[in-house]
């Protein structure tokens, strides 16, 4: 039976957020990471979602919160071991997303060989735009994404620079983690990641498609 839930508010579904790291060579290099031979994956919980009108909260244990602007893929039809040639049929649409990252904590986790949960999965670590229906982006492998902090351009990239394409990622991920309707895949960030502070205003967009604005706050 068809679902009665509305994917326009996919963040309310409580589904998985699967993130791909180091998918742009220029970003892997700026953080002195090797360019990966296979996708680097990590997860955020649904409690990471935040939508426009609410603030991004700096986690109390971090002093170096970074923005990472990314194209998000919203899954419309679930599946396991989806072949690359069928992958695009599993997409319902897209969203512009930020993979907010406590970089100081991530660096410490890397040094200690610990998972990135505290660095990547805290409340409000996944700001998202409105849902963008699939038909609005003819070629998700060729869109420009950008991010400004207080009106200054910090990130600008094109999804054509991704190392692993969207069909490849859907196929690769679904072989390991079954994809479900309402899941979101964050496809990685281009270069230019940098620190944000309390009271900063972040603006980000997919050129010609969507833009969004978030304020950064710190819990009292
Ligand atoms: C080093 C990272 O934080 C990887 C990541 O999230 C990315 O988008 O690249
Ligand atoms: Mg990221």
Automatic annotation (TrEMBL):
E.C. no: 3.7.1.5, 4.1.1.112, 5.3.2.2
Pfam families named among the record's database cross-references: FAA_hydrolase (PF01557)
GO CC annotation terms, alphabetical: mitochondrion
Molecular-function annotations in GO: acetylpyruvate hydrolase activity; acylpyruvate hydrolase activity; metal ion binding; oxaloacetate decarboxylase activity; oxaloacetate tautomerase activity
Catalysed conversion reaction: a 3-acylpyruvate + H2O = a carboxylate + pyruvate + H(+); oxaloacetate + H(+) = pyruvate + CO2; oxaloacetate = enol-oxaloacetate; 3-fumarylpyruvate + H2O = fumarate + pyruvate + H(+)
Keywords annotated in UniProt: Metal-binding
Gene3D superfamilies: Fumarylacetoacetase-like, C-terminal domain
Protein name in UniProt: Oxaloacetate tautomerase FAHD1, mitochondrial
Organism of derivation: Acipenser oxyrinchus oxyrinchus
Gene name of this polypeptide: Fahd1
């Amino acid at each position: 039976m068809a679902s009665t839930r509305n994917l326009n508010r996919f963040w309310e579904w409580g589904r998985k957020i699967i993130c791909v790291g180091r998918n742009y060579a220029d970003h892997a290099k700026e953080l002195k990471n090797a360019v990966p031979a296979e996708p680097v994956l990590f997860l955020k919980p649904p409690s990471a979602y935040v939508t426009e009108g609410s603030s991004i909260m700096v986690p109390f244990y971090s002093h170096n919160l970074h923005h990472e602007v990314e194209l998000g893929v919203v899954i419309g039809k679930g599946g396991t071991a989806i072949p690359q040639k069928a992958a695009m049929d599993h997409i319902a649409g897209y969203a512009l997303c930020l993979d907010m990252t406590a970089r100081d904590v991530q660096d410490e986790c890397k040094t200690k060989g610990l998972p990135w949960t505290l660095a990547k999965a805290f409340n409000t670590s996944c700001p998202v735009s409105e849902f963008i229906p699939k038909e609005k982006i003819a070629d998700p492998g060729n869109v420009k994404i950008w991010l400004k902090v207080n009106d200054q351009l910090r990130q600008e990239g094109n999804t054509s620079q991704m190392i692993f394409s969207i069909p490849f990622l859907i196929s690769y991920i679904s072989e390991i983690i079954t994809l479900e309707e309402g899941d979101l895949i964050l496809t990685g960030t281009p270069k230019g990641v940098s620190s944000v502070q309390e009271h900063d205003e972040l603006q980000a967009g997919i050129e010609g498609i969507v833009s969004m604005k978030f304020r950064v706050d710190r819990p009292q």
